Structures are given as C-alpha cells and as structure tokens.
Amino acid sequence: MAEDPQASGRELESYLAALAPEGDVETTVGRQFGNAQVHQLRLQLVANEQLRELASARGTSPSALAQEWVMERLRYEFGQHQQHGKAAMPQWPE
In this model, does residue 28 exceed pLDDT 70? Predict the structure, then answer.
C-alpha cells in the first residue's frame, strides 16, 4: 500500500499548530507602519481595567493613553540621561 504523500505535510501542520500559543493569533510585535513600529502590551486584568477607566474618563482610547504615557516616559528618561552629562540622545518628536 502506497503512503499518502500529503500525510507528512498534515502531520507537520498539526505539530506546528500545537506549538503555537492560542493567545497570540494576532502577533504584531515588530510590525512596522510608516515610521512607527507596533509593540504588544500585555497587562494584568486589573491594570487593563484601570487603563480603560482612565482612558474613558479622558475621552480617549486605552491604546492612545498607553502610547502617550510611553512617549512621556521616554522624553523624561532621555532628559535625565542628558542632564547627567552622558552622550547626547536622539530627540523625540512632540
């Protein structure tokens, strides 16, 4: 009896599917859009709810608020770096 030539392909697909984490169906880490790069941010459920509440109170989306906070922190960190006489860091757009 001849072996099914597609059997090994299906076996490999099943194996790879079993290895793939179910929660990462939409992995976007590293994907670039224009001059921006996308990063996933995983938060604990409590933190996620707090972010949603704060964003709603400010009339914005959770992702926009998180992005704003990251950019503010980067500006702060780079400013601290420059104040301590370290090598000049790149300037971030406003």
Answer: no
- Tell me the pTM: 0.53
State the angle between helix axes of 45-57 and 62-83 in degrees (0 to 180), rounded to the nearest 10. Answer: 100
Does 51 reside within a domain? no
Q: Do the domain assignments include residue 78?
A: yes
CA distances (Å), origin 44, targets 37, 58, 59, 89: 23, 21, 22, 32
Q: How far is CA 9 from CA 1, 24, 28, 80, 83, in A?
A: 19, 23, 27, 55, 59
Residue 80 lies in domain: 63-88
Reported as a single tens digit per residue, the pLDDT across 61-70 is 999 999 999 9
Cβ atoms within 10 A of the Cβ of 77, count?
11
Domain count, the chain: 1
Residue 7 lies in a domain: no
